[in-house]
Amino acid sequence: MPIGARLWPLTFEEITMSEQGYMPGFGNEFSTEALPGALPARGNSPQKAPYGLYAEQLSGTAFTAPRHANRRSWLYRIRPAAVQEPYEPCDIAPRWLSHFDDVPTPPNPLRWDPLPLPGPSAEVDFVDGMTTMGGNAGCAVHIYAANQSMGTRYFHNADGELLIVPQQGRLSIATEFGLIEIEPQEIAVIPRGVRFRVDLPEGPARGYVCENYGAHLRLPDLGVIGSNGLAHPRDFLTPVAAYEDKEGSFEMVAKFQGRLWRAPIGHSPLDVVAWHGNGAPYKYDLRKFNPIGSISYDHPDPSIFLVLHAPSSTPGVDTLDFVAFAPRVLAMLDTFRPPWFHRNIAGEFMGLVHGAYDAKAEGFAPGGASLHNSMIGHGPDAGTFDKASSHDTSQPDYIRDTMAIMFETPVVIQATRFALESPQRQRRYHECWTGLKKHFDPARR
């Protein structure tokens, strides 16, 4: 029996969440069917697919990519993806951008309060509610704020894969591959080109999205850490097959070459009855992340919090790192335990999903964001510095009830005009460091 197979008709309306284990970036294969026998026999590419279905391959990499890096899946669907009307330009979501050079990005630390949720008189779905905060050639960073489900609209992104991080409200993401449900402190990754619809089962929702233009996100190698630690492959889940067999008046929205396009479609595009392959959407619960840290002295680099990364052609350099600052215990002796003051080559966009971030005393709220770019000095604010400098390090610190995330790139993340002119921008953010007093005294060690 194929992994995740179902021996009865299964549609989106009949399930809440069904999953199978997934290991992003390790070439694993899955097979799942919503009707018994919808998948052809192993090793057989039939002249006619079962149930009158169409066979369609979705390739997320070059055909000749190395076996370990190749991502593709075979979909057995009611109609092929080519069956729809032509796309026309559309003006929806004018704040979802793929260019970031309208205004110069200042060499200053930047921080924002949470973007407001749409008011009750507005009808804003996941696509309309997307606002671009910044980006570069490797990725774009967005914040979504929505108050209604997509309903009869579907979406796919031809420009990159989407890493979705809810901060408020659950998301029910119906995809061609099946249903994924995520809540705050979970994430979902939707591969490039996969069609989906986002519903809001609990009402208004807000969160972060990173649009990855580079290599597929994958689990990092562990090196000297060994075989365990960080994100465990077994905790990544991908959906089992589920399909919509619906006809009517629907809309297909596509992001292509940085622009949004729309097309009428007379049926639901989520009509895949069975699939097999290794290129599929997946989810992960950040609360299962296994942090690695020092138990003797010094504060390690933030790479110890790496969940997923998109490698570049340069060994050891990624186009995108996704980092999670999860609950953990700090036990370093005679050490300044919060992140130290630092400057580095990276562009760092941070968001707070839940609780409080241990390196900031105030001003960094759940749903808010900060951006510290290349060689811009930043670190703990004055209150955090004073507290940590006199803390009794013979006792451990238990960092509980928190979840912060970071999208990190090796180059500057250029802020958009909206981000720089937004009323949510904290224009006096720099003052959180003005309380750092001069303590230097050459006569006293």
From TrEMBL:
Family: Belongs to the homogentisate dioxygenase family.
Pfam families xref list: HgmA_C, HgmA_N
Highest taxon in the source lineage: Bacteria
The keyword Iron belongs to this UniProt entry's keyword annotation: yes
Protein name per the record: Homogentisate 1,2-dioxygenase
Gene3D superfamilies on file: Jelly Rolls (2.60.120.10)
Keywords per UniProt: Dioxygenase, Iron, Metal-binding, Oxidoreductase, Phenylalanine catabolism, Tyrosine catabolism
Gene Ontology BP term (one): L-tyrosine catabolic process
Residue ranges of domain Homogentisate 1,2-dioxygenase N-terminal in the record: 22-286
NCBIfam families from the UniProt entry: hmgA (TIGR01015)
Cofactor: Fe cation
InterPro entries reported in the protein's UniProt record: HgmA_C, HgmA_N, Homogentis_dOase, RmlC-like_jellyroll, RmlC_Cupin_sf
Positions with a binding annotation for Fe cation: 342, 348, 378
One Gene Ontology molecular-function label: metal ion binding
Binding-site positions, homogentisate: 357, 378
EC number: 1.13.11.5
Domain called Homogentisate 1,2-dioxygenase C-terminal: residue spans: 287-440
One cellular component term from this protein's GO annotations in UniProt: cytoplasm
Residues of the active site: 299
